[in-house]
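User: I'll paste a sequence; please echo it back and then give the predicted structure.

Assistant: Echoing your sequence first, then the prediction.
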Amino acid sequence: MSELTFIGLDVHARSVAAGVLEGSTGEVHGGPAPVVVAELVSWLREQGESVSVAYEAGPTGFGLARACAAAGIPCLVAAPSKIARAPGERVKTDRRDALRLARLLRLGELTAVRVPSPAEEGARDLVRAREDARADLMRARQRLSKLLLRRGLVWEGKAWTGAHERWLAAQRFEERGLVLAYEEGLAAMMSVRARRDALDQAIREEAAKEPWATVVGRLGCLRGVSTLTAFGLATEIGEWQRFDGRSLGAYLGLTPSESSSGERRRQGAITKTGNAHARRLLVEAAWQQRRPLRRPSRELLRRREGQSALVRERAEAAGRRLHRRWRSFDARGKRSTVAAVAVARELAGWCWSLAVMED
């Protein structure tokens, strides 16, 4: 029997429950553990010379995993969505969860989440802050436009352009309450937009630095993949060598779900597993492949400056291939959403091929 001691931790902000499975005796016991990371690592060392630890990925982050790695303690951060749970189980406690983790760790039934470096996590937080600002801006614009719609005021041209914003600033009302509400909504929209623009500039500056500059520069050669999209994909995916051209699309939830039994095979909507932000970025880039192939824009030519001939050739081939793929769906009368998902899945493969390309 293995001498290794397996420890499962159910980690919360103010409490930690531990489940310990003794490898030599098979004895199982559980109880509270220290909350402070330094004290928790010391407690883990006291459990034996050979221990293996696991806890679920969650809002507490990766600090514990990094501290365990620095102390030489194997620590697995488990994907919560991949942990098997009995459908008839009606009792859930932190102690039970910790003991389950210890048992699954011993059986090798836990799916590990990659632990990013502090620099990678910081860049990812920057991208997600920009995503939050984008969502806040959409909500602020929605509230402002619907306030005007209730008064019968509708802008007939293209929305959120310079002309539209001058029209918004020119609106005048008599009711004091409405005046205050409109001015607050307009100011909130402008404030959020300024925050988004500041984050855009910060991302462009960060994307020009290593270790991101090489991958971002190559991905930016693809049609429809801007610097913001390329940097978002690079930070969310991290280590591209973990995948291949096909597995990346499955990791991001772009493959069809399936429910097959016997001779019946049924496929449904995409699985939507994995990183939702990276998946959205790829789908948005895939919609750009619907446009007819023309001479590259000045922005695309600028992004391709300084790249090798092989990278530019592969990006050109990807643009032609993805556009033909979209046209084939149009020819068969498929919905545009179906085409966008299929093209996004193939685009993921092209992104992978550029990211792992050797110099």
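Residues 118-207 form one domain. Residues 118-149 form the longest helix (32 residues).
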